[in-house]
Specification:
By secondary structure, this protein is an alpha/beta fold. The protein is built from 16 helices and eleven strands. Bound molecules: pyridoxal-5'-phosphate. The site of pyridoxal-5'-phosphate (PLP) has 15 residues, from helix 6.
Length: about 475
Amino acid sequence: MSPDEFRKRGREVIDWIADYYERIESFPVLSRVSPGEIRAGLPAEPPETGEDFGAILADLDEKILPGITHWQHPSFFAFFPANATGPAILGDLLASGLGVQGMLWATSPAATELETHVLDWLATLLDLPAGFRSDGAGGGVIQHTASDGALVALVAALHRVSGGATEADGVGTTARGAGRYTVYTSAQTHSSVEKACRIAGIGAGALRKLDVDPATLAARPEHLAELLAADVAAGHTPALVVASVGATGTGAVDPVGGLAALAHSYGAWLHVDAAWAGVAAVCPEHRGMHAGVESADSYGTNPHKWLLTNFDCSAFWVADRAALVGALSILPDYLRNAATESGEVFDYRDWHVPLGRRFRALKLWTVLRWYGAEGLRAHIRQHVALAAEFASWVEADSRFELLAPRSLSLVTFALRDSDQRDGDEATRELLQAVNDSGEAYLTQTSVHGRYAIRLAIGSVLTERRHVEAAWQSLASRA
Ligand code: PLP
């Protein structure tokens, strides 16, 4: 593609995206295709000769769009949001255009230094503890996802608790010789922690689930204390405790400080998973959820969920970068270079799972600069206020009830019914009917064994009228 052709097609693509956002409300939120339908519309064989870009764009409309669930639709209230915005798209496009691979500082110094710098900026914006900043022993890095963050936290924890033995011997040998490495987190915590245990080779059997407070659904430190004592008595080695700030199901917030004190008294690492909620700390009024974070060894939150930045961009900080780099660094001859050997630079290949890395800092930079702290705060505040209003409508309607306290912009509720089984079925049918209508898309969770609907507000395009319409859609079918 010549530069002139690229210019022409590039303009068409940007127009396509801008038009898409202008007409996004004309689509049903949830794709209606059946399994296999999209593939059936595609040629069985790849093209032998190159095709016109116009034909590719036409097929995007005709063949691909029907199979899209519109995550940027203002009536998308499912899972957690995955924000996409103009400045982030343009930042990502610039990164694609530069096409650098920032595995080492030396392979593009700006890619590394901008990343370190914007993660320091973000730490300031979220008022994270000074220990996470790069000018001390800590520092930030962009992981692909929060799941990667949990995995590297676990690998660093295993490295530290084993005194480096895991590096040489694998995870079969614990620091105490017998027993196994163990990991602790609440039943509310995201499944990525169990996945990390499997990937790291300590197995899902390493994971202990903490009881939660029945009202707040936050992990109980007393239960952690019991489990740690019992595991150590049985010859196991506690490696990691994961505290959630904004757990996936209901947005529960664990008592980070209490869990961290216990973790540290047994030599274990404390990771905070604030994948969704953490970015809300751009607003001072939401920083209470971060109480105790100063005792954490690592902390992760996803600008690619609720902070206006296209997937993927998961911010991850460590208090002691030497523990992380020690766990992940291998320096083969072909990567040796003077900057690495000087010890003066960060080589981000040592901070995450793969070697190669995209220049993701560019889109976070464009987002932070375009919106400014004020713009970021307005984005979060608008959604939290809408969720508070929605929760008040649920509470005022005797047919519904909240099943957990509202957490920021997440509301968890169900139809009220004296017979739980009938109530669960009715709530499930209600959710299905709303999703089938195409008017909105919401997902479910379970709270104390009850089927619950989650409404997670976070799309950039969502206005009050969309939340009101979602409530009408639910209430009129209840
Ligand atoms: N942690 C929490 C609390 C989440 O809600 C999620 C996803 O929703 C994850 C982790 C996993 O996120 P990712 O897709 O970035 O791995």
